[in-house]
Amino acid sequence: MLFNVSFDLPDSTESSASDSKHSPISKKGVNLQQHDAIGLNCLNTYPMVLLRKLRDYIQLIKLRLSLLVIFSAFSSYFLSADIIDWHKVLFLSLGGLLVTGSANGFNEFIERDLDKKMNRTRIRPIPDGRMTIAEATISCSVMAATGFFILSNYVNTNCALISMISFLLYVFVYTPIKIHSPFAVYIGAFPGAMPVLIGASAVSTEALTSLTTMQLFAIQFLWQFPHFWSIAWVLDEDYARAGFRLLPSKEGKTKKSALQILLYTVTLFPVSLLPVISGQAGLITSIVASVVSGLFITFAIQLYRSCSVADAKKVMYCSFGYLPAVLIAIIMDWIF
Fold first, then answer.
1. Distance CA 41, CA 174 (A)
2. Is residue 142 domain-shared with residue 44, that is, in the same domain?
3. Rounded to an integer, what distance in angstroms lies between the CA atom of residue 175 and that of residue 307?
4. Do residues 77 and 188 share a domain?
5. Do 145 and 73 share a domain, yes or no?
6. 230 and 188 within one domain
7. Phi, psi of 51, rounded to the nearest 5 degrees
8. CB atoms within 10 A of CB 307
9. Which of 207, 228, 245 is the last residue of a domain?
10. Are 188 and 234 part of one and the same domain?
């Protein structure tokens, strides 16, 4: 049962005979004012229950992360297609959102006991007890099955197959290894970059292996390392409560970890310019990629010098905007 709503009714039926006698709005011992108040309370409360449940599902599927995945797949589709089939875009987005949301939900289901130990995640619906394991499992299974069905029947088989591979890698390989080894970050980077392949495969098999697709995959693959490691730096103490050690160096928040973040950030700059070098993009991408890469590298250098959480936050916040900015720039070059 998804919704379990109960209301504590006031003991109006136990009113004395004298109360009923002297109340002009009582009938059969029930005060009508109280009855109306109960009904109004039900009307006010039920929408709130629905709203809270909606918020729980938004947390379960990690909606903002899921939308970034969909945007990445759409960008790849848009840059690979000669003619945009908006019906296909709709089904690609819907099916992709369901599969991605399901993967995120299963991730939270598997890590539910660990999530209870961390301040950042203990208020998620499963560890907080607002959603049962059965509800989460059934909901995520239905989302995954529906998503694969939509992608297979309304996009194409290759798109559904790549989505399934990404789903399996994330849920059954990356998630279990995450608690045991920081190497999980390298494994997770593959399903993390596969939305590019999913979007391209929605166009054709040829688009899947095109130069544009490979360049977008490389950008998204490399971007994940400074992005994830900066988050791991900021949340290192919280991750440690659950036994996660996700920074690239065993020593944790040291110059060794900061150096790896810096190296991947520097490497990302020329890779983000590959579409320009190959003629797939132009001036807009050149400017945007140079500006955001310059900021990214500057913040990474500051982190290497200070090894502080404050500078790690700068890298983290810059990473949030980096990928969307570069993808939008490439799309704008394609349009104009």
1. 46
2. yes
3. 28
4. yes
5. yes
6. no
7. -65, -45
8. 17
9. 207
10. no
Question: Which amino acid is it at 92?
Answer: L
Does residue 16 sit in helix, strand or coil?
coil
The SS3 call for residue 149 is helix
Domain final position from 188, 207, 226: 207
Residue 9 included in any domain = no
Shared domain check, 182 and 303: no
168 and 236 both lie in a single domain: no
- What whole-number distance in Å separates Cα of residue 144 and Cα of residue 168? 11
Q: Report residue 26: phi and psi, to 5°.
A: -95, 150
Same domain as 223, residue 183: no
Angle 322-210-204 from CA coordinates, rounded to 5°: 105
- What is the spatial distance between Cα 223 and Cα 171, in angstroms, rounded to a whole number? 21
**Which residue stretches of 9-128 are H helix?**
17-22, 32-60, 63-80, 86-110, 112-115
Ordered per-residue pLDDT tens for the chain, 336 residues:
333 333 333 333 333 334 434 444 444 444 545 555 555 455 457 788 889 999 999 999 999 999 999 999 999 999 999 999 999 999 999 999 999 999 999 999 999 999 999 999 999 999 999 999 999 999 999 999 999 999 999 999 999 999 999 999 999 999 999 999 999 999 999 999 999 999 999 999 999 999 999 999 999 999 999 999 999 999 999 999 999 999 999 899 999 999 999 999 999 999 999 999 999 999 999 999 999 999 999 999 999 999 999 999 999 999 999 999 999 999 999 998
Does the reported pTM lie above 0.90?
A: no
* Residue 170 structural domain: 32-207
- What the block records as the tokens of 270 is 């020329």
Whether 192 and 153 have beta carbons less than 8 Å apart is answered as no
CA angle, corner 289, sides to 259 and 100, nearest 5? 80
